[in-house]
Known about the structure:
- The chain is α+β, with helices and mostly antiparallel strands and 442 residues long.
- The protein is built from 13 helices and 23 strands.
- β4 and β5 form a beta hairpin.
- The chain starts with a helix and ends with a helix.
Amino acid sequence: MSIDKIVSLCKRRGFIFQSSEIYGGFGAIYDYGPLGISLKNNISQLWWRAMTQLHENIVGLDSGILMHPKVWEASGHVGAFNDPLVDCKECKARYRADELFEGDSNDGDWKKIACPKCGTTGNLTEPRQFNLMFKTNVGPIEEDSNIAYLRPETAQGIYVNYLLTQNAMRLKVPFGIAQIGKAFRNEIIARNFIFRTREFEQMEMQYFVKPGDDDQSMKDWKFERLKFYDQLGINSKKLRFHEHGPNELAHYAKEAWDIEFEFSFGWSEIEGIHNRTDYDLARHQEFSGKKMEIFDQQNNDRFLPFIIETSAGLNRMMLAVLSDAYWNDEENNRVVMKLHPRIAPVTAVVCPLVKKDGLPELGRKVMDILKPHFKVIYDQQGSIGKRYYRQDEAGTPYGITLDHQSIDDKTVTLRDRDTQVQNRISIDNLVNAINDSIESYS
Ligand code: GAP
C-alpha cells in the first residue's frame, strides 16, 4: 500500500491538509484538520499520561520555542550543523561530507561515491554549508547581535530549567521532566508526507540519573517505551529496535536506539532513546558559568546527573498509527481505518434510519446521553450504508442506528466497524457497552 492512499484519505476525511494549499502548498509543512487534531491530541494525551501520571517522579514542563541563542552554542547545534553536508536522495541519509571523502569536499566526485546506508551510487547531493536551524531576529532591527533560533529539539528547554524544576518540586534523582512541543528543522530533503517535515512536534522526556545508573536506566526505558505502542494498538510485528553504530551516534550520545516502524517506504525511526551522559549539562555549565550540579543530601555531595532521553515524534507516531490502521477490505468493498477505539477521533456516529417519525428527536437524546463520555457525531444524511462507509474511512469504531423499534422499546443497534456485526441494546446500556468494547478491543 503506497503512502499516496493515506495522503488522499487524510485529505478527503479531514485528517491532514497540505499547508497553504490555495497558494500551491508550502514545502514540508502540514495542517491538521478536525479528525487529525483529534487523533493527534488523543495520542499525545496517552503519552502525557504514561509519563506524568503513571510515574510519580516525572513532571511536566512547557518551555518557550525561542531561547537564549547561547543555548544552541552550548548544545552544539550552532557548530554541529555548520559542516558541509551531503544527502542521499534515495534513502534520505545525511552525512557530513568529510565522513565520505577525505580532503576538500569540493574536490569530491560525488556522483561516483556510494551511499553507505542504501548502497546506491549517483544519489548523493553536492556538499553544501547548511545549518538545520531556522533563524529569526528578536526586536525591530535585523542584525547579527539579535539572532534567535527556532528550537530544533525541545530537550534543551528542559535542561536549562532542570534545577529550577527540581527545586520547586523537591525531586530526588532519579527523576524525569516531560515536554510536548513544536520543533523546527530546515530539512533539505523533506518527503514521505508527515514523516519528515520542517515543523513538527516532539514528545520528549529527560530522565536524570546518577552516573553509573545510566546503563540500567537505558535498558528500563527501552523496554517501557516499546510497551507504550501497545496502547496505540500498533501491530508489534511492525516495530523493532535499531541500535546506532559509531558513525550514526549524535555528538551528545554514548548509546542510542531507535524504535522503528515498518512504513510503506521501509523501516524508519519514530522514536529515539539516547544516553546523553552529562554532555548537555556540562556544556551549559561551561557556557553559562552557572553551576548545573545537583546536591545529593544523603551523601552531602554534588554531581552532574546523566540523562536518558526518550524522544518521540508525535507526527511520525501518528503516521505509524494511520499506516497500521489502513485496511482495504476488498470483500466488502470498503476502506477502513482500523484505529484503536481509545484513540479514534470520533468514538461513535448516531444515525436515525429516517428523518421523520420521531427518530431525529430520539437521536438527539442519544447524543445528549453519550456526549459527556465520548466524542460522538450525528449523521442523518444519505443512505445508512453510505453513512457507515464514511465513518469506516474516518476510523469511527461504533455506529448507533435508531429505527422504528427504537421508539417502542428504547433500544438501538450498535454496529462494530471492523466486523460490521450489529447488536441490539438498550439506550440505557449504551455507555457501558461502548466502554466495555473499548477496554476489550484487540
Ligand atoms: N532530542 C533528541 C532529538 O531531537 P532526533 O532523533 O533528532 O533526536 C527525535 O529526533 C524524534 O523527533 C525522531 O525520532 C522523530 O520522530 C522526530 N523528528 C525528528 N526530525 C523530524 C522531522 N524533520 N519531521 C518529523 N519528525 C521529526
